[in-house]
Amino acid sequence: MTLIYFRLQVVYFTAPFPYVILFALAIRGLTLPGAMNGMAFYLTPDFTKILDANVWLDAGTQVFYSFAICFGCQMALGSYNKYNRDFVRDGMFICGVNCFSSLLGGVVIFTVLGYMAHEMGVGVEDAAASGPGLAFVVYPKAVSLMPYAPFWAFCFFFMLVLVGIDSQFVGVEGKSNNLTKIIQVLAMLSLVNFQELLWP
Questions:
Q1: For the CA atoms of 141, 144, 147, 151, what is the dihedral angle to 10 degrees?
Q2: How confident is the model over 114-159, as pLDDT tens digits?
Q3: Cα(78)–Cα(166) distance, rounded to whole angstroms?
Q4: What counts of helices (H) and strands (E) characterise the chain?
Q5: Label partner for 33 (CA 20 to 30 A): which of 3, 16, 123, 166?
Q6: d(CA 51, CA 53)
Q7: Which 3 state secondary structure label does DSSP give 5?
Q8: Which candidate, 14, 187, 25, 7, places its Cα nearest to that of 105?
């Protein structure tokens, strides 16, 4: 029980901390010259891409990755809830927070990208190569534009470590929960001697 309590206390810090950093970067990005051009590029749909299969593939990959679909994490964590808990409300809340996080990250990237395009005198689409590597170009630039940049750089990379740890908490919990349930069911069916399994 103490391990669960400790993890809960850790999550009270590690879950909101990335939002503090993202909000700070977004506020700074919105104050930069050319940021509105980046926002316009971010929020203006290009309907010519709607029939491009790669766009749908990238969108599906993002959804599966960000929700950790098929890993069993949400079901494992949901198994700790009370029986009558409103899981539909919880699911909608998770979807909303996830989409908000993605949009906030996009605001940070494209405001800084608009600034980079303004500085280079090119269009936003020409400022940086597209793809997953875009974030690795723009986020360091965003951090370098903050006042007291070394402090924000430390906070940003500390945030990345925390996000990785939180992801591992959930992933390990999903696996260990399922393994525990399987062993309990097998023990109830007398197919496995639970004590011999733990202490051979």
A1: 120
A2: 888 888 888 887 776 666 667 777 888 888 888 888 998 898 889 8
A3: 16
A4: 10, 0
A5: 16
A6: 6
A7: helix
A8: 25
Tell me if residue 12 falls in helix, strand or coil: helix
State the helix-helix crossing angle for 17-30 and 149-188, rounded to 10 degrees: 140
Is 170:68 a contact under the CB 8 Å cutoff? yes
Say how many domains are in the chain: 1
Whether the pLDDT of residue 178 is over 80: the answer is: no
Closest CA to 160 of 130, 133, 140: 140
At residue 167, what is the residue type?
A: S
Question: Pick from 87, 104, 92, 126: which is nearest to 30 by CA?
Answer: 104
Residues 163, 167: Cα–Cα separation, whole Å: 6
CA torsion 18→20→24→26, rounded to 10°? 60
| Entry pTM | 0.77
Vertex 136, ends 141 and 129: CA angle to 5°? 95
Give the closest residue to 73 by CA, choosing from 53, 56, 91, 58. 91
Burial degree of 145 (CB within 10 A; 0-12, 13-18, 19+): middle
pLDDT of residue 104: 92
